[in-house]
Amino acid sequence: MREETGSGLAIHARGLAKSFRGRMAVQDCSIDVPTGTIYGFLGPNGSGKTTTIRMLCGLLTPDKGEGTCLGYNLISETARIKREVGYMPQRFGLYEDLTIRENLDFIARLYEMDDPRRSVDGTLEQLGLEARQTQLAAELSGGWKQRLALAACTMHQPKLLLLDEPTAGVDPKARREFWDEIQHLAAGGITILVSTHYMDEAERCYQIGYLSNGKLLVHGSVSDVVRSAGISAWRVTGPQLDRLLPRVKKIPGVEMAALFGAELHIAGSDAARIQRGLDEMELPPAVNVEHTDPTLEDVFIHTMDKYTENKAE
């Protein structure tokens, strides 16, 4: 029986934990995803993103914890969850020796759709796959495989999409087109949770959460997450910045320093120490230093460093 979340949440989970052969993959993970949002799930490889997603869609049973997905119990109503969720795994999981149409026809029959042919026709049109419908999946580029996978997990008109690093390994144009489609689906009322390593993709999400070692460390809107981190940043321009970089990295308080094209970007939480260090450096007259806005990447490097320090203590 569907449970009422009472707060407009598509996902509401508390204290999820999962281990494999004694190795903890997810520990004490709590997450809320509001209905109708695009929620970005970020974190390094091995942080537990995939395991968490699989628990949320009913493919894995948590060792501990509780919660609901679309109002259904994560433990006892996994079959109902699977019927109303679309899951796109990291790796292409469709049949490469079948055509695009044959793959979608199989999915339509798997979900026992009333009119499989009509559902397939509509999906082919919506995702721009009509002209390639007779092409074998094995012959598709990464971008077109991605589009086919999205078609397969949306054809049964799910209320929630769980996308696990869907744009990994595809070119920038395909990534942009994929995200245009994601935002189109969200505008139609579908809730989307998407894991990604790309900061530009994270910035297109309504809310984000950062997972490390199976724990959700920070969450909220991009602007809230950046503001609450307490990070300061500087932009350095001028000649021979590659020679300046090693010196900048040694300034007390600098947590991140890297070259971005013709600029040197510096960030850290102790603004006073960093500014003092910059002031004390003998910089060439042609080098200019100015404050700038911190980036999402700055925040996550800071978050990881802080978490590592706390864990060591």
Describe the structure.
There is one protein chain. Helix 3 (100-110) crosses helix 4. This protein is 36% helix and 27% strand. The chain has helices spanning 49-56, 78-84, 100-110, 116-126, 142-154, 172-187, 199-202, 222-228, 241-249, 271-280, 296-312, and strands at residues 9-20, 23-34, 38-42, 64-69, 72-73, 85-88, 160-164, 191-195, 207-212, 215-220, 232-237, 256-260, 263-268, 288-292. The protein folds into two domains: 9-220, P-loop containing nucleotide triphosphate hydrolases (Rossmann fold, 3-Layer(aba) Sandwich), CATH 3.40.50.300; 227-312, Malonyl-CoA ACP transacylase, ACP-binding (Alpha-Beta Plaits, 2-Layer Sandwich). The strands form three sheets. Strands 6-7-8-3-9-10 form a six-stranded mixed beta sheet, sandwiched between helices. The protein has a four-stranded antiparallel beta sheet with strand order 2-1-4-5, with helices on one face. Strands 12-13-11-14 form a four-stranded antiparallel beta sheet, with helices on both faces. The chain has eleven helices and 14 strands.
Kindly list the characteristics that best describe this protein.
about 325 residues; alpha/beta; Rossmann fold; Alpha-Beta Plaits; four-stranded antiparallel β-sheet; 11 helices; disordered N terminus
